[in-house]
Amino acid sequence: MPSAHSLLLHHPGPRPAFYRVAEHLWGAGCNVDSDGDSRTPDDQQWTELTLILRDSGGQRLDIDPLSMEPLVLLIRASQADLGARAAHFIQSVAGGTLQAHITDR
After folding, report:
1. Which of 40, 52, 88, 90 is the most interior residue, by most CB within 10 Å?
2. What's 79's domain CATH number?
3. pTM, to two decimals
4. How many angstroms from the chain centroid is the CA of residue 8?
5. What domain range includes position 81?
């Protein structure tokens, strides 16, 4: 997903289950497409996650590892506030340090 603005989460611990991220953003029972590297629904060690809210006109969240050692997650979203809400929620569970990440297009 092209984005001039994204967030980095440095050194997070165990992350919330991927479905909890979706529920935090869009409410319980939200209708999402998801992809990532969770081994089970409750996996807290995932490093890749894509969530797309169905019938939303394109609300999307992408999280990918920028680095594995140390772990740094790159958090991008279709809307800046969506990415910020996701990043702050994940940080509230996993800890770590958030940083704005500006890239050239």
Report:
1. 90
2. 3.60.90
3. 0.91
4. 10
5. 5-102
Of 65, 72, 82, nearest in space to 12 by CA: 72
Q: Which residue has the higher pLDDT, 55 or 64?
A: 64
Scan for tokens 């991008």, then name that residue.
76
Average pLDDT over residues 51-61: 92
Domain count, the chain: 1
Q: What is d(CA 41, CA 96) in angstroms, rounded to the nearest whole number? A: 22
Q: What is the largest CA-CA distance in the chain?
A: 37
**DSSP per-residue string spanning 13-69:** -SPPPHHHHHHHHH-TT--EEEEE--SSTT-S----EEEEETTSSS-EEEEEEEEET
